[in-house]
């Protein structure tokens, strides 16, 4: 029987990721209100697309201190402030309990669970050590550990090889539309995540939950 595999993204799916709130909390002089924080986050994260400075942190090709220096040049924020911001992020990646509650339900229906996440190594190490939901996953890929990032097709090809995926028997859950497009182009089923209730409805409609 072909394994039915659910591939989860982590950030903004199983982990709260609210960079605007984070910027207002940690960089109030530069992000005194939501509009200013949104503009600052655009300068820092640049949409997290491949080639963006932050995406290279996710790829593992730049460490935190040089990242802060690079981000300072593009954001106008002092490198020391940005380094504190970078180091503080794991403390704010709280588990989304409503999404985590889907994991045992999917397992109970016989599905394999794996993860495919754009994540720098320092954050990945912390999360694996601290978050109980990883016990539900059979395997996973963090971008920084393989030198690839979503939505590059190569990281999906690696996932297919490492996890033994059959694309037609795979569903991918991610909040990022570009990542969803690449998954579907490889023949995976995919659900663009908005919230846990919507994700549950979509998985049910696709026949992955009942």
TrEMBL record:
Keywords: Hydrolase
Source superkingdom: Bacteria
InterPro entries with a match to the protein in the record: HAD-like_sf, HAD-SF_hydro_IA, HAD_sf
Coiled-coil intervals, chain numbering: none
GO MF annotations, alphabetized: hydrolase activity
CDD domains (alphabetical): HAD_sEH-N_like
PANTHER family named among the record's database cross-references: ALPHA-D-GLUCOSE 1-PHOSPHATE PHOSPHATASE, FLAVIN MONONUCLEOTIDE HYDROLASE 1, CHLOROPLATIC
Stated name of the protein: HAD superfamily hydrolase (TIGR01509 family)
